[in-house]
Amino acid sequence: MADVAVWPACDVACAFCSNPAGEYRRPLAEHSLPSLVRRLTRWKAGLERFHKFDAARDNVTLTGGEPTLHPRILPLLAAVRRQFPGVLVRLLTHGRRLADASFAKRVLEAAGAPFEAAVNLSGPEDGLERSFAGALNLLCLRRPGQRVSARYVLTRETLGRLGPLAAKMAEKLPGLSGLAVLFPEFEGRALASPEALGLRLTEAATVLEDLAPALSKAGPLSLYHFPVCVLGPRLRPLAAKTLDDAKVVFSLACRGCRRRAACVGIHKSYARVAGCGEFRP
Ligand code: SF4
Question: Which site in 55, 70, 173, 276 is 20 to 30 Å from 260, CA atoms measured?
Fold first, then answer.
């Protein structure tokens, strides 16, 4: 899964955002359509590297910032589809521009298939209705080979509203192909957010254990960035290995852990902020 940051700017300031604020978020010449197409062409030929998941070739993930803010997102999607026929193109988005049904339709047309739109439903409550509307437009307008999933990133604040929101997803967004609940990476903007930094994996896992039945009604549930040992037996099979090896560490306590091969590991930034005392084989 090569992650291609197509547009670094974003119009929402999520507390969990792992992108830096400031200069990074200013669109640069390297994010122009010709530049991105050139980089993807070189990547396909093995001449270019992307920062995250460079080695994976089974899909191309368009991310940001917010990729739908790219002024030429439609021709970019069409170009990616032409360059990678048959490869899953995934769009990570806050979904708010897609509340415009005609824009959502054109995104789906340009992206072709196979395609997945993963809509983040954990942004600030102000404007969240537009994310729901965007996800619903995609669900209504998608074609064969196109799917829509939801993502939800935890902070102390979003953990508190996850229960009601899961019920709303199940009711308002029937047909989601999945719901991924993510523990935040303590990077970028999140490093200045007490809401993100204050959350602990074991605390989040305890709440998720109670919410699991409600969450599963919204769509097939998966958990990203959770070391296996913080999860109870019901949630353990749902933990996905979602972090690049370069981003994680294992503690001394992990030695001899029989779940280590299936475990994503401990995010380095989490270990720096919270230590490794929570992890036991
Ligand atoms: S003890 Fe270490 S390797 Fe085992 S599940 Fe926990 S974090 Fe993963």
Answer: 55
Query: Is the C-beta atom of 229 inside 6 A of ligand 1?
Result: yes
Q: Kindly write down the DSSP assignment for every residue of 151-172, as one continuous string.
A: EEE--HHHHHTHHHHHHHHHHH
Domains of the chain in start order, with CATH, are: 2-246 (3.20.20.70)
Mutate to test the pocket of ligand 1, among 183, 245, 251, 258 (most ligand atoms within 8 A of CB): 251
Q: Are strands 239-240 and 221-224 parallel, antiparallel or unpaired?
A: parallel
Q: Give the distance (Å) from ligand 1 centre to CA of residue 253.
A: 8
User: Distance, CA 243 to ligand 1 centroid (Å)?
Assistant: 14
CA 92 to chain centre: 6
Quote the crossing angle between the two packed helices 162-172 and 201-218, to the nearest 10°: 20
Q: Is the peptide bond before 27 cis (omega within 30 degrees of 0)?
A: no
User: Beta strand 266-267 with 248-249: parallel, antiparallel or unpaired?
Assistant: antiparallel
61-101 pLDDT tens trace: 999 889 999 999 999 999 999 999 999 999 999 999 999 99
CA–CA separation, 188 and 281 (whole Å): 30
